[in-house]
Amino acid sequence: MALHSMRKARGCWRFIRALHKGSAAAPAPQVSEHTQLSWILSCMVRLPRLQHLHQWKAKTTKQKHDGTGGLLTYPVLQAADILLYKSTHVPVGEDQVQHMELVQDLAEGFNKKYGEFFPVPKSVLTSMKKVKSLRDPSAKMSKSDPDKLATVRITDSPEEIVQKFRKAVTDFTSEVTYDPAGRAGVSNMVAVHAAVTGLSVEEVVRRSAGMDTAHYKLAVADAVIEKFAPIKREIEKLKLDKDHLEKVLQIGSAKAKELAYPVCQEVKKLVGFL
Predict the structure, then answer these.
(1) Which of 34, 16, 26 minimizes the C-alpha distance to 257?
(2) Is 140 part of the annotated catalytic residue set?
């Protein structure tokens, strides 16, 4: 819950900064224990281990091998986010399983060196393990993708969502089927459709019988628009109440700090900083 509060606070702060114009915005509340623990954990992991992580390799390849130290060590910061609150179970997507293995190894390594302290958290896979890019169904959907048509955002307008699904990569077979290995693009449409409607993949395919993929993509777009609609309404409502957002930010940061501080202090004592 504390980790959720902290992430909620971070998200609120980014939202508030987007609402404010200029430099008059107040400074963001900080929970510095995250970065402090991250640095301690980074001293326990070898460079080749981080360079082996598939997201590092994929992103540096896209960036023509110009990845930064921050990108390389980001999985260690993720580990700090988790271990700082002594989490036992972490819901993740399939693409984060390798990062969770790093978290588990860091917890076990710390415990072996300094005594049993951190629980070794378990991964809890979400029902939809990975959403694929609309433009490249071999890759995951990513908010950092330079192709704006590849990723659907909650804040997209209905018109933008329709355009993105209309331009989504499928194939030259019109029938709607689910075959991730042979028909990755269409299968991604089916997976998204199942996720936003709560139906099984089999039921989605059954209900789409007789529909060609061009019309089916628009049906998926409509389902996504319907799913996002209440969330978008809540976002618009929150935009009108900046005081509430700032209060959520402050309360979330305070709760996270209350839990994070004693754990970080104990870690510092164990490693000899205090």
Answers:
(1) 34
(2) yes
Q: Rounded distance, CA 44 to CA 13, Å?
A: 31
* Whether the predicted pLDDT of 102 surpasses 90: yes
Q: Return the H-helix or E-strand segment holding 122.
A: strand 122-125
Query: What does the block give as tokens for 25?
Result: 């915005």
Q: pTM of the prediction?
A: 0.75
Q: Which residue out of 21, 64, 112, 143 is catalytically annotated?
A: 143
Nearest CA to 152 among 61, 248, 231, 64? 231
Which tokens sit at 27? 């400074």
59 is catalytic: yes
Q: Among 132, 140, 217, 257, which one carries the catalytic annotation?
A: 140
- Token readout for 181 is 């290995």
Q: What does the pLDDT read at residue 28?
A: 41
Q: Is 191 exposed, middle or buried (0-12, 13-18, 19+ CB in 10 A)?
A: buried
- DSSP letter at 121 equals -
Please, which residues bridge with residue 89 across strands? 122
Other C-beta atoms closer than 10 Å to the C-beta of 8 total 17
Could you tell me if 264 and 37 are in contact, meaning their C-beta atoms sit under 8 angstroms apart? yes
* Residue 21 annotated as catalytic: no
Which tokens go with 26?
Answer: 């107040």
